[in-house]
Protein: BolA protein
Amino acid sequence: MASRRLIPQLLRTSSRLASVRPRATITITPLSSRQHISPFSTSRHHRDEASIPPAASPQAPDYLDEAERRIFDILVKDLQPTKLEVQDISGGCGSMYALDIVSEQFKGLPVIKQHRLVNKVLGEEIKKWHGVQLKTKAP
Structure:
């Protein structure tokens, strides 16, 4: 008898909870991947990939410490990145780094192989670290 009273009460409670939960999903597209071409324009507003000259290697920022600069130099030499960010996120002790790398050498490689390539390039250096946050992509 008690179970007959509980079932309707549970249904009312679960339907109230369902109506409170947000159901929206948001998809964010980076601005760099969007192309805006006006249908009324007579000229093309975007450049052909072939006409874009290869980007110069990034220059090391002045604020890098000695260890960050060493990592930066190794990655520039071996991966020729178009974008490179190196940051000690361990609080200054050099045990964990965040790396953001964009390189032509990643083109056609799945993310895991991109990460393995970075690990190979950093070799003995990376073995000294506690961890690494790695973000890689092809241009």
In short: The CA atoms of residues 35 and 46 lie 8 Å apart. The radius of gyration is 25 Å.
